[in-house]
Amino acid sequence: MHIEVRNLNKSFGDFHAVQDVSFDIKKGQLIGLLGPSGGGKTSILRMLAGLESPSSGDIVFHGKRVNDLPPQERGIGFVFQNYALFKHMTVYDNIAFGLKVKKQTKEQIRERVMTLVELTGLKGFEHRYAHQLSGGQRQRVAFARALAPEPQLLLLDEPFAAIDAKIRTELRTWLKEMIERVGITSIFVTHDQDEAIEVADEIMIISKGRLEQKGSPWAIYKDPQTPFVASFIGESTIVEDVGALKGFDSAAGKPGTKALIRPEYIEIGKPGEIRLASAALEANVKHIHFRGSEWLVELEVGSVKLVTYRSLEKDVLQPGDRVHVLVHRAYLFNDQESWIQENS
Ligand code: ATP
């Protein structure tokens, strides 16, 4: 289903939970709504579902304005974080529920339920009740139940939030493959950036009721368009004194400009280890932390603090070591503008 949202607003009293949000979603896309708690993600999802009516703006499905259509006529399936399975029903009956409501024959229902049981890897579990299933299995039942009536749009609100970290990672991959296979347009809410980056075709970053940026995970990571997006996605440090960084003189000339620097944009080496040493800053190693696949190194360049990674193959650094530092790329911003600068 192709979705257009135009100038969507939602106020609760004089609080503006969603402000002037517009976007398009193409048929078959998997979209992640990502942002801090209270930003308005769930409110947007509920308005798409018809569970909440917009204060103003238009919601258009397939070229048709649906603002006044009740939820059951919008062709939507839901998956919530707390599974919301019917506890007194078996897996089979949970999945069949939406089909019974549609008054399908027993045979049609059986065929559809068994297709979904196969698709979601729940064969053999049809006669179990919710309490006899693991969290991951319950969420797969919730997914099968949502898909059973063949909705045009699937809405998922924090679908992995209540699941253990390890199973969550498996379930994410599973869900992405499933959604691709079924080809259904889907939108999921999350506050976990790794989840959004791994799962979504496109991410919409929502903060304080506004849509900050929409794009592929890579585009958002590489070319953030607002300081909020730059600092929310990925790891970074913010340097207030841009003049302390070599090669950013033009930025330093603009009052109030700060630099946001990601760990991977920084090259470090012991004296002699780094090329272009003449362009490098002198820094002091403050702390090192082992992270399994690399070291995290905290540096001090005068009063400026930077964070970067160091691979395990290189000599181990120690707190107090003097190192050379090259900053290859920075996201620069002030009250008027933001831009990315590369230092080659
Ligand atoms: P979370 O990740 O915590 O679920 P969210 O981004 O989904 O947050 P929303 O649930 O959409 O955010 O809430 C946005 C804001 O609107 C919050 O400040 C919330 O308190 C407020 N809000 C939501 N629903 C209502 C309501 N029915 N009445 C009053 N305020 C509400």
Structure commentary:
This protein is an alpha+beta fold and 344 residues long. The chain folds into two domains: 3-232, 3-Layer(aba) Sandwich (Rossmann fold); 237-244 and 254-342, OB fold (Dihydrolipoamide Acetyltransferase, E2P) (Beta Barrel). Helices cover 26% and strands 33% of the residues. It has helices at residues 41-49, 91-101, 106-119, 135-147, 165-182, 193-199, 217-222, 227-232, 249-252; strands at 3-12, 15-25, 30-34, 56-61, 64-65, 76-80, 153-157, 185-190, 202-207, 210-215, 237-239, 258-261, 266-269, 281-290, 294-301, 304-311, 322-327, 329-333, 338-342. The strands form four sheets. It has a six-stranded mixed beta sheet, with helices on both faces. A five-stranded antiparallel beta sheet has the order 13-17-14-15-16, with no helix packed on it. The chain has a four-stranded antiparallel beta sheet with strand order 2-1-4-5, covered by helices on one side. Helix 3 packs across helix 4. The relative contact order is 0.12. The structure holds adenosine-5'-triphosphate. Its EC number is 7.6.2.9. Keywords: ATP-binding, Nucleotide-binding, Transport. It catalyses: a quaternary ammonium(out) + ATP + H2O = a quaternary ammonium(in) + ADP + phosphate + H(+). GO terms for molecular function: ABC-type quaternary ammonium compound transporting activity; ATP binding; ATP hydrolysis activity.
